[in-house]
Design brief:
Layout lengths: L2 E6 L1 H7 L3 E5 L3 H11 L4 H7 L3 E4 L2 E2 L15 E5 L6
Parallel strand pairs: 1-5
Antiparallel strand pairs: 1-2, 3-4, 3-5
């Protein structure tokens, strides 16, 4: 099973309490499930994760089915919550 890194940004980083984590995951869906399980006690984490834009290995995942997004060993998943600023 590939080892992948999830990087948390902004409000998601605050909810997770860490900037990144490593999980074993063959698909994006596996990785997101692992992150949810790791932070299951935090409803804030789940809420923010649900509205994040996702970038896998520098490519936006967009509306792709997470179960169909294959990961490789060393893949990096950026989880970007919406933010305001100027």
């Amino acid at each position: 099973m590939p080892k992948v890194t999830l990087r948390y940004w902004a409000a998601l980083r605050a909810a997770a309490g860490v900037s990144e984590e490593t999980f074993d995951a063959a698909t994006l869906d596996d990785a997101l499930r692992a992150a949810r399980a790791a932070h299951g006690a935090s409803s804030r984490f789940a809420t923010v994760l649900g509205i994040c834009a996702i970038v896998v290995d520098e490519t936006p995942a967009g509306k792709a089915d997470p179960s169909q997004v294959a990961l490789r060993d060393g893949s990096v998943i950026e989880l970007l919550p919406p933010y305001a600023g100027g």
